[in-house]
Amino acid sequence: MQSLAHQRCFNHAAREAVARCPGCKQFFCRECITEHDDRMVCAACLKKLTPKALARRLGFTQIFRFAQCAVGLLVAWFFFFLIGAGLLKLPDSFHEGTLWHVHRINRE
Which of 4, 28, 66, 95 could tie 32 with a disulfide, CB 3.0–4.6 Å? Predict the structure, then answer.
């Protein structure tokens, strides 16, 4: 068996190989190989690995987005609840002399 230094890229015969894919056992140049889960794999093997990880990640992402929306709505509701509670605690004398109070008195 020849050493890695004498191997050529599976996709580019003119290029020197830098790594061997553990999945298909072919040699590839720097442009044809990438790191995935702490190992170097070719594009074809990466394509085989990706749908499994992507499907798992999409499920988590949807749950996470739903949780973000729920928390956001809860925070907004609580914020407006506090504002409403604060406005209800204002005494009636606070509104004396205001524009809508003056118009209501004048109409009576």
Answer: 28
